[in-house]
Write a structure and sequence with these properties.
With 155 residues, the chain is an all-beta fold. Helices cover 0% and strands 41% of the residues. The site of zinc ion has 8 residues, from loops.
Amino acid sequence: MALRPQNPASGTGSPMFQPTRISASPSKLKLLDEAGTRGVLLGSRCSLCGSHTFGTVPSCQACYSPEVESVELGAEGTLYSYTLVRTPPPGWQGDVPYVLGQVELPQGPHVVSQVVDCPPEHVHIGMKMLLYLDEVPGANDDEEARVIFKWRPAS
Ligand SMILES: [Zn+2]
């Protein structure tokens, strides 16, 4: 089930709410509303060299300093590279082939995920991308659905 809308310009304050959906990757994706329709990518910023890393990490991926702080990396980027996947991983339930995009965030880190809402022939390097939230069912009946992130063209 697709979760819309995704608004990258939304505020990123500290919401006091109990989400009804939860992030499948809490160290990489923070949900900004109860329904799990808006989210922001998480990362780490090094106090020593200033490098950003996607995801919250214990030490800088560039200089290995442990002086890192958690930061929000936003919900948009630029398509750096992509590939058309014709042989999906085991258990893949989506369409085949599909586009797997490598998106460069403004702060520098690259984030790889599926590109949706765009035919493969219209995908091109350099296009502006927005985060797109989707939902996957839990691993079993007792487990609630999780929100995952994908990319979609900004226009
Ligand atoms: Zn560093």
